[in-house]
Design goal:
The chain contains 14 helices and ten strands. Strand 6, helix 6 and strand 7 form a beta-alpha-beta unit. About 45% of the residues lie in helices and about 20% in strands.
């Protein structure tokens, strides 16, 4: 059956329209990524990128998976359950020492000098302990051994002339540190935001030492992907990096938005005044390899992370 020229023209138009619609659907299809994070303020850029729709606008479907600690995030990624995530520098170095197939792609947070420290060693306001030296033979709550928290307190103890073994470290989850300190089960605790601000504003607790006083300008956390993700999901990684940079710009413009994102992600019922008082870490758009190396040297000296390699060789973005 012969069709008319007019009908043929209409069919071509319909075909062209369908082609455009199908292409648009393909372009709108977001690439999935599963990223692990520890529920603290370090990962604020990830929270902001989800809350503000930055990942979505860059063609990503990012699922943030809450994990109790950095080593478990790395283990999940190596197993294939996660594409990567945010983890402390100490667990990452220890994983690299076991030849874990991971690579560093971003700054997951570093310490900056703030009026209210984002990381601090605290004690009760009524406590007789005024300096770290006063805590010889006492108990300090940290997340766990061979972590950046272990390193912070250990360096401060050395600077105070104490042997590392003269202080008892008690592993306590971040959200439980304030209760155990208030009960008197420990005499001090190493807190990170939002728990620092919560402790200082809502409880009879004071700062003994800020993290900046313990190890100045140290690298706290890093963003990593597995080698498999970098090889098989290159477009997704590129979109992630663009999104992460955009989230950092967003935080610079509106830090209160980031503080609200922290509160919402951690499901903490914080008052508006407390949310505004939160202290943010610093995040560089390009990983600062020299800062990472300085932090690695401290961790290696304390045997918190003994890997002898150069962390700069594991960064896939930024020049070592």
């Amino acid at each position: 059956m012969r069709i008319s020229d007019a009908t043929a023209t209409r069919l071509r138009c319909i075909a062209a329209t369908l082609s455009i619609l199908l292409l648009g659907c393909q372009n709108d299809a977001r690439i999935p990524l599963k990223l692990g994070y520890v529920p603290v303020g370090d990962s604020a850029p990830l929270y902001v990128a989800v809350k503000a729709g930055i990942f979505r606008d860059n063609g990503l479907d990012v699922e943030l998976i809450e994990v109790a600690e950095g080593p478990l995030i790395i283990a999940g990624a190596v197993k294939g359950d996660l594409d990567g995530g945010s983890a402390g520098i100490a667990p990452i170095l220890n994983a690299l020492g076991r030849d874990a197939p991971i690579r560093i792609v971003g700054d997951g947070g570093h310490i900056v000098d703030r009026p209210r420290p984002p990381v601090a060693l605290v004690t009760l306001s009524s406590s007789p302990y005024r300096t770290l030296r006063d805590l010889a033979g006492k108990k300090i709550a940290i997340t766990g051994p061979r972590t950046i928290e272990d390193a912070l307190v250990s360096v401060a103890a050395q600077n105070a002339g104490l042997e590392r073994g003269s202080i008892t470290f008690v592993p306590v989850p971040q959200e439980s540190k304030i209760p155990v300190l208030l009960r008197g089960d420990v005499q001090a605790a190493l807190l990170v935001e939002p728990y620092v601000s919560e402790a200082l504003k809502e409880h009879p607790i004071r700062v003994m030492l800020s993290a900046q006083q313990m190890i100045p300008d140290f690298q706290q956390a890093l963003i990593f992907f597995t080698e498999d993700t970098l090889a098989k999901k290159k477009p997704a990684v590129e979109r992630f990096l663009r999104s992460y940079e955009a989230a950092l710009d967003y935080i610079a413009r509106d830090p209160d938005y980031a503080k609200t994102a922290i509160s919402e992600r951690l499901k903490r019922k914080l008052s508006p005044d407390l949310i505004r008082s939160l202290s943010l870490l610093g995040w560089d758009k390009t990983p600062n390899v020299e800062r990472m190396r300085r932090t690695q040297d401290v961790l290696r000296r304390l045997n918190v992370a003994a890997w002898p390699g150069d962390i700069g060789t594991k960064v896939v973005r930024g020049s070592p």
